[in-house]
Design goal:
disordered N terminus; Maltoporin, Chain A; about 950 residues; mainly beta; four-stranded mixed beta sheet; 14 helices
Length: about 950
Amino acid sequence: MSHRKTLLTASIVAGLCCLSGTLNAQDASQSTTANNGVGALTKSQDTTNSATSKTNAKELATITVTGIRASLQASMDTKRNADAIVDAITAEDIGKFPATNVAEALAQVPGVTLDRSIPGTQRVSIDGLDPSLNVSLLDGHPVAQAIWLFGDNPNRGFNYSLLPPEILGQLEIIKSPEARIVEGSLGGTVLMHTVKPLDVASNTLNGSFGVNYNDMVGSQRPNGSVFYSWHNSDKTFGIDVSAQHYEEYTSREGMENYGYSTVASVNAAAVAAGNNTIQNEINAGSIKPGDLIPNELSAANFQQTEKRSSILTNIQYRPNQNFESTLSLMYMRDDLDNVNQSTYPWATNKPAGITSLTEGPNGIITGGSSVGTPCFNTTSCTSNASTFSDNYARGSAVTTKGADWKGTYFGDGWRLSADAGVSSSRNPMTSFIKEIYYGGSFNWNINNGVQFTDPSTANNPNYWADNGWGGNEETILYKARDTYGQLDFSKDLDGFVNEVLVGVRYASHWESQVENAYTGPQQLTLNQIGYGGLSNLSGMSDLGLSDSFVRHVQTSGFNAIKNAVLSTPGFGVNKDANVYFDNTWAVQQENEAAYVQANFGTDNVHGNVGLRFVDTKFTASGYNVPGYCAAADTFNCDFGPGFGWVTSKKSFTNVLPALNVAWNITPNLILRGAASETVAYAPYNQLAPYFEANDTVLTATAGNPGLKPYRSANFDASIEWYFNDESMFAASVFYKDVLNYIVNAATYQSRINGSWTIPGYMQANGNAQVAAGLCTSAGVCQYSVTAPVNGGRAKVKGATLSYQQAFGDSGFGMRANYTYSDASTASGGWLPYNSKNSYNIGPYFEKGPYSASVSYNYRDAYLAGGYVAGAPATYVDGFKELDASAGYQFNKNFSVTLNLLNLLNSKYYAYLGSKTQLSEEYVTGRQFMLEAHFKL
């Protein structure tokens, strides 16, 4: 148990005491409406969930503009009237600016950046911090989320693509915390407000239907959504329903490299096999023993068809002005089946076939050649050259359900509200793999990939087959569940302190994973699996990769791979014990919190001050397996004392002060200041005692139940100039002193290779690993294990500039922002997901029935996570994106829009160190979405 009290805490406690006796101020209450006819924030919303429902806000002038200008003005007014440092997006922002989901709309906000390593699943960073260090709440409550990608690293970031934009009235991004707001964020808290039936006209009906198209895959998919809201004539009872179906076919094409080996280690294996080529080059001085050789340059092709359906309903009851109750029900299903093919000639797997190596800059071997003999129509092939093609068929279907209730009683100058809810999410994922082999010669180059010496043979399916290992089936049952209950009380006061708020909250998050691997599929030729012709990967051409990477053999798809694994008689009985023990775990986090907050204000000064008390308990469970059981790889092994299913518990207590002050220097010039302490937590799987290994490339990732929470002291300030009703310029600075930042550390560990006893593994991989000195003959191998550790101190300091303006009656306008974020760690390394510079430029036009906008986004290089289990973190190069949108309003009821995304077909590059040490490079193609919108 840890408990801490700082000078900042003590100062704010003293401030609370002083403020409670101050008099002679006013009390006012405010509601803010998004003027698109859909979204509204009213007094009925919980003040613990909205930064704009405050007692010191002034009444706004009636807004008469519509469309883009109305949207930007509503967002600007939310920012202007908040106590904290806040940015906002209305529902119209999502529909009028180039975006297909909420995440892309958030990218328009200062300090918000996206990671685009996989299409459609962006991770959102705020002020240069890891996406897991944000909190996202839907109407004030969490939404449980199971992971969607087999082998992915779970994070606490929210999957915004789950939500149809029609259900949202407004989003707020709170960058300076308040005591009443749920803990867990270092970067920012995103509050998503849905539309409530009593806040819009009865029988409101709107929606959209359309198609989206990706030019790299040449396929279009449908999408549609509808929103309906009704209430009775007395506005005492109402119900709304939002439903969406969205489909998208995406592809990610490029080249991956699965780590590096030293020339010395590869040479030792080559000499042992009777090949002195590398030694001769070392002796000649053309290469060095310490140079690094790419292990496998892979033609990577990820293809996915997503089918997402969701429905959300709000049932609202307000029998009188004193009581209100809302029940929200949610159901979402996201089908994300995908096929991932990696075709990789593997020079270091068979050093006996290496005939040349070429040294490049910074001690990186940039090219080479291997000679081997292809084998015809056989599953048993001996050659001095090895090319593998891993063909994964992965099934993924995330189902999320939720029920949330909120009741509020409004007394005479006081209010009492209660919230409770539960959400659950599960994904029974499957993964089928067939790993086929080709033994022919090849040349490789780190800039262009691999070229087969004899393409006619390499492109003939008769020369490809399983070789020693027939693949397997793996299953993961992933579950997540959130439950919470909250009680809030507020009392209006006459004086400088115009409202006092107190509340308590209990929240529990439970997450678990059960993984199994079924072994023993029969070895098959590619023709028996199902030959799908030659690939034609235009993305490889865009990257300048070789003809052999663009056009190579492939299977006939998802079902062919799956059925080839399941076709073995009696398959599905043999389970791998090590996979189960290493990857089965459960984690529970329980937070008990209480807060007190005072809102204060005069005509010119307003703000809040408060304390939040948080007690956090972690319970982490997993298997601890003795070495002799791992070596036997069997379920029939007696665990000794201290082994088996083990559970560890830790608890932490934190006192979190928060102060926000806004000073209206003039009616149009606002100066803000904020100070706070915050706490955040590692991703749930990082807290579990697990070990997920890739036995082929000998990398692994592991958990650490000893992780402490992130803790940060934060200081923010901003100045905002509202130079007319639709225009603004703002500048802000932020400083975060993170007292415990969790980082990933890579170490080498000797562990039993969990695949050593799988039939055929020795022939396919094990013997080569022994020859290279990576494993002993008993299967004890040196794994590069990446695990999270308590990394010590980190600091983030930066500034943002934000500008928006409508240029009179011309129809033209502009919004733009720039963020500078400079981060440093105690170890001197990069802070994950921190880009030093990022900016967005977005001119727009809207006049009469026509509307159009352009958005150019850029972010600097940043550190991101690895791409396979245990892979080291990668440095992602700067990324730019150009998007555009155009629309035509036929009448007040019907309009069409065309969104054009990634018009530059930007390349995604990642490196392990310098830019000469390639890790991965991808393209995802341009996306076009044509939609028709209706409002009745």
